[in-house]
Amino acid sequence: MKLFTKLTLFITLSKLAIVILFVWLLPVLVNRIAYQYNDYYLKEQKRKVLNVVGKSGIDAYLQGEPSYGSYTMLKEEYISLEPAGKTVPVDTIATLRRVVEGDTLTYRVLSHTFSHHNRNYILEVGKTTATIDEYNQPLQRMALYVLIALMVSTIVIDLVYTRLLLRPLATIIRNRLLNARFPFRETSPPIKTSTTDFRYLDDSLTELMGKVRDAFEKEREFTSNASHELMTPISILQSKTENLMIEEELPEAIQKKILDMMKTLNRLKKIVHSLLLISRIENNQFPRSDSFNIKELVQEVTDELEHRLQEQQLAFHLQLSGKVVLTGLNHDLIFQLVYNLLNNAIRYNKPGGQVIIRENYTPGKPYQLIIGDTGIGIPAHEIGTIFQRFKKVEKNENEGYGLGLSIVHTIATYHDIAIEVSSQPGAGTEFTLSFPLPAPASGYKRFI
Amino acid sequence: MKVLIVEDERSIAYEMEAFLKKAFYLCDLAHTAKQALEKMEENQYSFILLDLGLPDKDGLLLLQEARKNYPDASCIILSARGQLEDRIRGLNLGADDYLPKPFSLLELQSRMQAVIRRKFGLQESSVVIGDFRVDLNKRLVIYNEETEIELSKKEFDLLNYLLLHKNRPITRMQLSEHIWGSFSDDDYDSNYIDVHIKNIRKKLSAWSSVEWLQTVRSVGYKVKI
C-alpha cells in the first residue's frame, strides 16, 4: 500500500473513531452538564430564599401560615417551606417524585434544613427533570454537527497537506527509481524540497547511482581495454601457429598438437570478441534505427544454422506470419541475439528433437518472439544465473558458451527487450522476447 | 608480385612475410609510416598491407597518401579497431579490403587473391585440377571441357579455398571460419565440414578420380597438386 493511501486511511479512521466515541459519550456528557447547571441554579435559588429569610424573617414567606408552597404555571418549578420538627437536618440534591395538585412529576429537588428563631424549617426547591432535559436533544445535535464539520475540514486539510508533503517523495521515486535506467548515464537535477529527510534520500540515491555508474564505467573501460590489448598477442600467436601448421613434413603427432593450440587460441579469440562486443554495446556504439521484417531476420539466422539443424536431425518449425516489421532496433545485434538463442536451442537439443519459433502478437501490445526447443532444459535453480558472464550451466564436452547468453542479455537490455525463460529439465526450454512498443511510452504511469 | 607489409608489431610482420613468401610473394617490411613512405618511393608494390595503429601516424592518413601517390598498389587494411566506422572510412578512402585483427593468414591470402581477380580482370578465372577445370566465374566444376558439375555454394567455397591454399593442410576450423565467418561454431569436431567434403567427392568422383582432395588425418584436408 502506498504511503499516501496509508496516511489517508489512518487520518480518516482515527477521526472516525473520535466521532464515534464522542457520539457515544455525548448524551451522558450533555446530561451531566445540564444537571450540574441545574444544581447550581437550585443552589442559587436556595441562597436567594435564605437571603430573603435573613433580611425579612421567615414570615415574608409564611405570612402566618404553617407552611409555604409555590409553583410555576406548568408546574415546572416549585418551592416549598415547611417546619421540620426535630428531624435530622438534610442538605441534599436528589431526583425525587412529588405530587403537585394530583400530578405525580419527577423533579430535581434541593432539600435544605435550616433554623430560624430556634425553629427548624425544611426548604425544597425543585425543577422537573423534563425541563432539564429539554435542551439536551438540540444541544447534542448541534454539538455533533459542529464536530462533523470540524472533522471533515481537518481531514481535507490533512490530506491536502500530506499530499503536498509527499510530493517530493513521488518525484524521487519517479526520477531516481522508475525513470532511471541502468547504467544511470543521464542524471536529473536535485529534487526541490524543504524536507530534510527527502533531501537526504534524494542525495543518497544520486550518490549511490553515481557510484554504480562509476563502477560500471570502470568495468566497461577495463573490458574494452583488456580486449583490445589481448588482440595483438592473439594475432601473433595465430599467425605463428598457422605458419607452423603449413610446415612441410610435420609428424602427425606435432600436427595434432598444433591443431589443439589453434583450437584453444580460437576459443580465446572468441571470448575476447564476445567481451568486446558486450563492451561496445554497453558503450552505445550501435545505432538503433533499423526497421526490418522479423520473419526475414529469423530466416537469415536459420540459413546460417541450417547445417547444424540437419546435422542434429532436428525438426524446425517456423511459425511466423511474416507481417510484423519491427522498428528502432539494430539489425546486426538482433541477428546475433536470435542467432545465439537458436544456436543454443540446437546445441542443447536431443537428436530427433524440435526447434520451434513462434510469435505472439496482439496490436497495441508488445510483440513477442518465442524460441523453444525440446532439449535438455535448465534446472530451476540455474535459470536465474544463465545470463551471467562465464556462468556455465553444466560442464560438458561443448566448450565456450560462457558468453552467448550474456550477449543475448546485453543486446536485449540495450533494446529494452524483456526476456522470459521457462524451462523444464529434460523436456525443453522456451525463451520469450518481448519487444518494446514502437512509440515509447512518453510518461511512466502516474505516481500518487 | 611485390608486397609492402606496414605493421609495427614485428612478430606479426615476420609471420606474414614468412607465409606470403611461401605463396611466392616478394615482401618488404615497414614498421612505421615514415619507413613505409620511403619504401613506397623506392619500389613499386602491387600490394600494401596496412596496419592502422602505427606509432608515428594514423594509418588512415598514410592510406590517403598511398592512394594519391601510388594508385596502382592495392591496399588491404589490417586493424584491431574492427569497428564498423573504421571499416567504412577505410574503404571510402580507397582501401580494397579490410581485415579485422586477429585474422587468419589463409584468409589474408584469399582476400589478396580476390582483390587481384577484381583488379586485373578475370584472366585467371579457372584452375585446372586433375581432370577437372574449376571455373571461378561461373562457380562451376567442368569435367573434360564438356560436363558441368554443379556444387552448392558452400561446397564450391570450400573447394575454392582448398585450391587457393593448395598443398597445405587446412584445418576444419579454418575451413569453417572461412565459410561461416564470425558465426563459425566452437565445436570444431562436429562433422559438417566432412559432410560437405564427402558431397564434393561424391559429385566429382562420378566422373573422375579425386585423389588430389586428401584427408589429413586428425587435422583436416588439403588439395595436393
Keywords for this entry:
heterodimer; A: about 450 residues; alpha+beta; five-stranded antiparallel β-sheet; five-stranded mixed β-sheet; 10 helices; B: about 220 residues; five-stranded parallel β-sheet; four-stranded antiparallel β-sheet; elongated
Describe the protein.
The complex is a heterodimer of chains A (448) and B (225). Chain A is of the alpha+beta class. Helices cover 53% and strands 19% of the residues of chain A. In chain A, the strands form 3 sheets. A 5-stranded antiparallel sheet of chain A has the order 1-2-5-4-3. In chain A, α4 packs parallel to α5, α5 runs antiparallel to α6 (252-282) and α8 (331-347) runs antiparallel to α10. The radius of gyration of chain A is 47 Å and the shape is rod-shaped. Chain B has 225 residues and is an alpha/beta fold. Chain B has helices at 10-22, 33-42, 59-69, 84-92, 105-119, 153-164, 172-180, 192-205; strands at residues 2-6, 26-30, 47-51, 74-79, 97-100, 126-129, 132-135, 140-143, 147-149, 170-171, 213-216, 220-223. In chain B, strands 2-1-3-4-5 form a 5-stranded parallel sheet, sandwiched between helices. A 4-stranded antiparallel sheet of chain B has the order 6-7-8-9, with helices on one face. A 3-stranded antiparallel sheet of chain B has the order 10-12-11. In chain B, a hairpin with a 3-residue loop joins β11 (213-216) and β12 (220-223). The two termini of chain B are 22 Å apart. The mean pLDDT of chain B is 87. Chain A binds chain B through residues 228, 231-232, 234-236, 238-240, 242-243, 245-246, 252, 255-256, 259, 262-263, 266-267, 269-270, 273, 280, 285, 304, 307-308, 311, 339, 343, 347, 397-401, and chain B through 9, 11-12, 15-16, 18-19, 22, 80-81, 83, 101-106, 154, 168-169, 171, 173-174, 177, 180, 182-183, 185-188, 190-192, 195, 216-219.
